[in-house]
């Protein structure tokens, strides 16, 4: 499908941006329901959505700009073309790093909560598990942009590039095959793209995120009375990086440090650090002895605690 929905003069509305913003809005709606059921003002979620999107996109862009991916579209490129750092009108939201976006969004939540005298961990509990849903929807933007796919494969679910629209440069493109998006595509070009498939890593990550969204939702609804404020965030910081570590194995264009992709190093640190913090928080803590703390932030957690006591 065409990555551009419509274009009016220099302005173009891209599907990628719609998927990112749309996913964030849906996740915010679910989070606002959690907040309302926990007795909080859900309007804070919608205020946080605006700030988190703005600061999150800035963080995601900076992560991409200062990265060093294999395709060279990182700091090596942007230091020579600084205007392209803010060239959002050419390519929409392309060139974003999820970990930078998470850092920016978390910072926005922390500052907002500090200003309004709210507990940031409580509000991150409302939001964090639902970010998985937003990420799953956002990955569909990579599908439309025909980017961030994996190495060549002949599995039945392989992703095949539509050469009529721009895409990420395929690896080992034969010299007699045109680059996707070129005018007047030759028959040889059409045949090559039709016969060469790639691992759909965006679908892999989207599927993992949807699975983890379901798992965390179940855990929170079923065992929310045993969770402490902040556990929802920690569970997210374990669930998402586990999948990201696996998906990065299929990313030939990844930014690499040593023998692993940078995203894999971040995933290892996040999973181990969050699991250790989760252990420390529950080592000498009992939800039966501290019911005021166990009325966590999620959905019907308070109702579950009340009915279980």
TrEMBL record:
GO BP, sorted A to Z: lipoprotein biosynthetic process
Cross-referenced InterPro entries:
Lgt
The pathway entry for this protein reads as: Protein modification; lipoprotein biosynthesis (diacylglyceryl transfer)
GO cellular component annotations of the record: plasma membrane
Q: Keyword Transferase, does the record have it?
A: yes
The answer to whether the entry has keyword Transferase is yes
Binding-site residues for a 1,2-diacyl-sn-glycero-3-phospho-(1'-sn-glycerol), renumbered to this chain: 139
Q: Record's family?
A: Belongs to the Lgt family.
Q: What NCBIfam families would the database entry show?
A: lgt (TIGR00544)
Chain's role: Catalyzes the transfer of the diacylglyceryl group from phosphatidylglycerol to the sulfhydryl group of the N-terminal cysteine of a prolipoprotein, the first step in the formation of mature lipoproteins.
Q: Which HAMAP family match?
A: Lgt (MF_01147)
Instruction: State the name under which the record lists this protein.
Output: Phosphatidylglycerol--prolipoprotein diacylglyceryl transferase
Query: Where does this protein come from, organism-wise?
Result: Litorilinea aerophila
Instruction: Quote the gene name from the UniProt entry.
Output: lgt
């Amino acid at each position: 499908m065409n990555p551009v929905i419509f274009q009016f003069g220099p302005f173009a509305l891209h599907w990628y941006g719609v998927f990112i913003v749309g996913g964030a809005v849906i996740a915010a709606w679910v989070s606002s329901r959690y907040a309302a059921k926990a007795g909080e003002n859900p309007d804070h979620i919608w205020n946080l959505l605006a700030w988190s999107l703005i600061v999150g996109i800035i963080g995601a862009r900076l992560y991409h700009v200062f990265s060093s991916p294999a395709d060279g579209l990182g700091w090596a490129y942007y230091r020579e073309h600084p205007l392209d750092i803010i060239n959002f009108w050419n390519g929409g939201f392309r060139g974003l790093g999820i970990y930078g976006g998470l850092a920016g969004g978390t910072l926005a939540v922390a500052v907002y909560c500090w200003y309004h005298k709210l507990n940031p961990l409580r509000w991150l509990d409302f939001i964090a598990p639902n970010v998985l849903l937003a990420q799953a929807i956002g990955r569909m933007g990579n599908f439309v942009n025909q980017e961030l796919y994996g190495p060549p494969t002949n599995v039945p679910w392989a992703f095949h590039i539509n050469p009529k629209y721009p895409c990420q440069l395929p690896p080992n493109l034969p010299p007699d095959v045109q680059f996707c998006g070129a005018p007047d595509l030759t028959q040889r070009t059409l045949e090559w793209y039709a016969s060469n498939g790639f691992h759909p890593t965006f679908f892999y990550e989207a599927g993992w995120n949807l699975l983890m969204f379901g798992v965390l939702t179940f855990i929170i609804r079923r065992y929310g009375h045993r969770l402490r404020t902040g556990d929802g965030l920690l569970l997210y910081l374990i669930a998402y990086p586990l999948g990201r570590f696996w998906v990065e194995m299929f990313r030939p264009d990844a930014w690499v440090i040593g023998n692993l992709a940078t995203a894999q190093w971040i995933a290892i640190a996040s999973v181990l650090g969050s699991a250790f913090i989760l252990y420390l928080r529950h080592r000498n803590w009992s939800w039966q002895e501290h019911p005021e703390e166990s009325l966590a932030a999620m959905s019907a957690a308070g109702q579950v605690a009340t009915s279980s006591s």
